[in-house]
Amino acid sequence: MAGSTPNGCGLCDNRRMNERNELMSREPLDYEAVEASLVRAESELDAAEVHGLFCGLLCATGRIDEAVWHDEVFESPDPRNLTYQNTLRLLRRLGSHTRDQMYDTELGLVLLLPDDEAPLGDRLEAMLSWIHGFLFGLGIGGLELERLPEGEAREFVQDLTELVRAEVERGADSEENEQALAEILEYLRMGTLLLLETLQPIKAPPRLQ
After folding, report:
1. Does the residue 140 lie in any domain?
2. Please, how many CA atoms are within 13 Å of residue 198, restricted to the half-sphere of its CB?
3. What's the domain count of the chain?
4. How far apart are the first and last CA of the chain?
5. Residue 38 lies in domain
6. Which tens digit of pLDDT belongs to each residue from 81-137?
7. 54, 69 in Cβ contact below 8 A?
8. Relative orientation angle of helices 175-199 and 47-61, to the nearest 10 degrees
């Protein structure tokens, strides 16, 4: 009987681990949940920037490769730290979810940004952070603007480069500014999908004709 105790403890540990993993798989992938997890893990990147990074990597390489993005998100993490482990699992789910959305034939990509109830200024800052992450993902994915063919996809990347360099002022929460932001976000969304089709024509299904 004494020898059965370790095995019993092992079964309990496995059960607790499975339960924890099950809870993690149910954790929402909205902006607030991902942002909170990154803050707990002391990452220097915010949720919008990580999502932009994932989208940029997918466009440039056709993959969201953990070996590429991990050290950009986490600086010298302790692999035994539960907070780090939980955040890593969440980001793996986010990467898979992002890939599924970007290859969705129904144009299902949704940018990971604060919801519409957040102040306009906060959403604007998150949008700029997303763009910064996206351009960074293109860069570490090896994309060179000069190699892009002339056309809408190249113009899109040029537009983002200019936008992220611009001095963008916080606007008042007005219907006019809300509409302007909505139009920019839709441009980002559709431009990202267009760039994916341009750079990964075999992997990305044709949807934008």
Report:
1. yes
2. 21
3. 1
4. 70
5. 9-199
6. 999 999 999 999 999 999 999 999 888 899 999 999 999 989 999 999 999 999 999
7. yes
8. 30
Spatial distance between the Cα atoms of 67 and 99, rounded to a whole number of angstroms: 16
pLDDT in tens, 146-187: 888 889 999 999 999 998 876 555 555 678 888 889 999 999
Quick count: other Cβ atoms within 10 Å of Cβ 89? 16
Distance between CA 109 and CA 104 in Å, rounded? 8
- The CATH number of residue 160's host domain is 1.20.120.740
Answer left, alpha or beta for residue 149, where phi above 0 means left and psi between -120 and 50 means alpha: beta
More confident residue, 204 or 133: 133
Q: What is the largest CA-CA distance in the chain?
A: 75
Instruction: Tokens for 76, please give them.
Output: 């010298």
Yes or no: say if 51 and 128 are a contact pair by the CB < 8 Å rule: no
**Do the beta carbons of residue 157 and residue 195 sit within 8 Å?**
yes
Number of neighbours of residue 26 by Cβ within 10 angstroms:
7
Burial class (CB in 10 A: 0-12, 13-18, 19+), 97: middle
Q: Please give the distance of CA 57 from its chain centroid, rounded to a whole number.
A: 10
Give the global pTM. 0.84
